[in-house]
Write a structure and sequence with these properties.
This protein has about 425 residues and is of the alpha/beta class. The chain has helices at about 5-10, 50-55, 100-105, 170-185, 200-215, 245-255, 260-265, 280-285, 300-305, 320-335, 335-340, 375-385, 400-405, and strands at about 20, 25, 30-35, 45-50, 70, 80-85, 120-125, 145-150, 160-165, 165-170, 195-200, 220-225, 290-295, 345-350, 395.
């Protein structure tokens, strides 16, 4: 789109659109669809990359259709502040011989791999960081918003610009394109703050791209805010026939020509194994941006879907207890550098829950349990440097892990997973 038309789009942002269609924002556990009439909805309009922009940034969906993003302008004193949302939804690989290629083939016929059926406008989900309702979102309701549909299937890392098996994976290029369009609209050079928030695969995208965004917008304070994107490389569950995260990330790095954190890439530790920099617990020591980590200690996506822990009918059997306890201990151990960081540099919200993504809108999950401290409150207290009565340094790793032998030790989790077979003992 030519610059003058783009500027027109931004200036006419809140003008009438005939029909605002609910935006399905997916993670690996399902999806949420905002509906007309829901409280606190934020209207965002679509900017689909023009042919010239696609050529310039090589930013395409899996099927080759132009990628894009949804946006709304900030107002008043917050007009220069931006809250990004990176949609989640697993990953796939376009390599014809790779077992995940069928998932890419499926995705290219859906909104996860094609922009052909994206609505011209969407409704942001209520009661979270995209809400325009000041009672639900008091701190960010007047910020500018960027919501990026996840159509590349590559954890927002891919730079596969030449078709492989008729498919593209250019997630990092899409990030580059968003920044380029903002610059053309005279918005980027005025930006003072950017929060890069993502869920699941979008959480990966936030950790992979935050430093790149910060380098592109050097005058702005950029913050990485991954939710459910802190996966660790541990042995898969015995006899599960699952692919380890090490092998999965090696494949993704090589097949998609993945972008990774450049500080991590140049380090002596990971220079010979750059794929490892796709994992946040490996790359964190090299981040230049501030970071707030939201991560369930019993992430069901990693344990069940990726590592193969059997949880049939949401029942965790006793043979899995020791593996799950070990997984939790190792996850907490990887938080070490985050916890050691200054209160200004990093915060963390890690409940002992058997779910994947922590809903920002959730009023139910607290750390510590029954403290009333939610993810949204915890992040905002940290971001604005407000005093916290439960953790002066904003490092909220569920304390019930140390005081209870039960896996389901936080009473506010409301997890569907039955862990009674493991809750009778077996300390860490």
């Amino acid at each position: 789109m030519k610059r003058v038309l783009l500027l027109g789009l931004f200036s006419l942002l809140l003008c009438c659109v005939s029909a605002h269609i609910g935006f399905h924002h997916y993670d690996d556990d399902g999806f949420f669809s905002a509906k007309a009439g829901d409280a606190g909805l934020q209207i965002l309009d679509l900017h689909l990359f023009s042919a010239a922009e696609v050529a310039q940034y090589e930013a395409k969906c899996i099927d080759g259709s132009p990628a894009g993003f949804y946006f709304s302008l900030g107002s008043g004193e917050n007009a220069t502040k931006w809250f990004w949302y990176l949609q989640g939804g697993g990953y796939c690989l376009a390599e014809p011989t790779h077992p995940d290629v069928e998932y890419c083939t499926f995705r290219r016929n859906s909104t996860f791999g094609s922009s052909k059926h994206w609505p011209p406008a969407l409704l942001g989900p209520p009661a979270d960081f995209l809400s325009s309702d000041p009672t639900l979102n008091p701190d960010y309701h007047t910020w500018g918003k960027i919501a990026i549909p996840y159509c590349s299937g590559d954890l927002y890392a891919g730079q596969l610009t030449k078709p492989l098996n008729g498919m593209y994976q250019t997630g990092h290029n899409i990030i580059t394109g968003v920044l380029g369009v903002m610059r053309e609209a005279n918005l980027l050079d005025k930006a003072t703050e950017m929060v890069i928030y993502g869920e699941s695969a979008g959480g990966f995208g936030a950790t992979i791209n935050a430093d790149y965004i910060a380098k592109t917008v050097p005058q702005a304070i950029v913050t990485a805010f991954p939710n459910g994107g802190w996966f660790i490389d541990i042995p898969v569950y015995p006899n599960s026939n699952k692919t380890s995260w090490a092998n999965a990330m090696k494949a993704l790095y090589n097949i998609t020509n993945a972008y990774v954190n450049q500080g991590c890439l140049s380090s002596s530790e990971y220079h010979a194994q750059p794929w490892a920099c796709l994992l946040a617990n490996n790359s964190y020591a090299h981040w230049n941006t501030r970071a707030f980590i939201a991560q369930n200690i019993y992430d069901t996506e990693q344990m069940e879907i990726q590592d193969g822990v059997p949880i049939p009918n949401n029942i965790l059997g006793s043979p899995s207890c020791s593996y799950v306890r070990s997984y939790a201990s190792k996850t907490v151990a990887t938080f070490g550098e985050v916890i050691a960081s200054s209160a200004h540099q990093a915060g963390i919200f890690a409940p002992a829950c058997f779910i994947h993504v922590i809903s920002p809108a959730s009023k139910g999950i607290h750390v510590p349990g029954n403290s009333g401290v939610t993810l949204m409150q915890s992040f905002s207290d940290w971001y604005f440097g407000r005093s916290s009565t439960v953790s002066p340094d904003y490092k909220l790793v569920d304390p019930c892990l140390k005081t209870s032998s039960a896996l389901s030790c936080n009473p506010t989790c409301s997890s569907p997973v039955n862990t009674k077979a493991c809750d009778g003992g077996g300390g860490r």
